[in-house]
Each structure stands twice: as structure tokens, then as C-alpha cells.
Amino acid sequence: MSSEPAAPQTQGVTVELLAAVDLGPEIEGMAGRELRMRLVTIAPGGVFGPMHSHVDRPGVVYILQGTITDHRNGVVTNYGPGLGWQEDRHTTHWLENRGAVPAVEVSVDIVRR
Fold first, then answer.
1. Is this model's pTM higher than 0.70 or not?
2. Could you confirm whether domain 11-112 is CATH 2.60.120.10?
3. What is the pLDDT along the chain (113 residues), one digit of tens a residue?
4. With 0-12 CB in 10 A as exposed, 13-18 as middle and 19+ as buried, what is 82?
5. HEC string of the chain?
6. Among the four residues 8, 69, 87, 111, which has the most C-beta atoms within 10 Å?
7. Residue ranges of the domains in the chain?
């Protein structure tokens, strides 16, 4: 029996698109792909879920404010300002803000358009 809580649905999350680049004209073989940068804010008690995979959607995350708790492969890790992580094809996770202040991250990933 796992002590890992079930991954709830997204709540208390706002996402702002900061920039995007169509990769098709930039890199051969990348037609239909976009590099995007988003500002993601998770309110206190908020959740970025449910459990989701980054297969075919690699990215990196950098924390600006607050603390984000990452639930990945049964391991719970807290990330605060100045820290970040990668999200590769092996990443399946969900996020939450257990703190008292909004958690703010910059998320950069490659997605299908």
C-alpha cells in the first residue's frame, strides 16, 4: 500500500503563455511542433494534475516563488525558488502547492501544435 496520495484534478492554477516559436520553419523534422514558455501560478492548496506524462513533450521548469511539491514515481520532492527540474519521456507526475503563498514557475516545453 502506497503512502502517495491519489493525484487530484487541476485546481487553483493559472497559466499565462509568455512566448512561443513554431519549430517547423526553424529545424528540419520539427513540423507541427512548438517551443513554448509559460508562467504557471499554483495557488496555496492548488494542484496541477492529474497524473500526467511528458512522453512526446519534453521540458524544463524553474521556480520563481513559493514551493512546488512534485509527486513522481512514488517520490515526493519539494522545489523552492531558484530550483527546477527536467521533464523527459520518463516523467510521469503531478504537482501541488502545500505552502501559504502562491508558487510561481516558468515552464518551457516542446508541444505538438
1. yes
2. yes
3. 455 567 789 999 999 999 999 999 999 999 999 999 999 999 999 999 899 999 999 999 999 999 999 999 889 999 999 999 999 999 999 999 999 999 999 999 999 98
4. exposed
5. CCCCCCCCCCEEEEEEEEEEEECCCCCCCCCCEEEEEEEEEEEEEEEEEEEEECCCCCEEEEEEECCEEEEECCEEEEECCCCEEEECCCCEEEEECCCCCCEEEEEEEEEEC
6. 87
7. 11-112
